[in-house]
Amino acid sequence: xxxxSKITDVLECSLEIAFKAPILGDATKFMKGYxxxxxxTGFEDYKNWGEINGIRYPINNGNFLVKKxxxxxxxxx
Length: 77
Hints:
By secondary structure, the chain is mainly beta.
């Protein structure tokens, strides 16, 4: 399965404001799950989150369709 991404717009602001935005903050507040996707309950390996090319791995408690643990890799572009 291949995925592609395209940056369509750039928000001009300071790094301090950018990294305080919810998408870069505590995603458990808004990634509540949808249909069969369980909600995000925490993150693993986020020591470089907030830096350029930083990564973190959202984790979940699973359900009957999705295995418990890491869901995907979240990367700062």
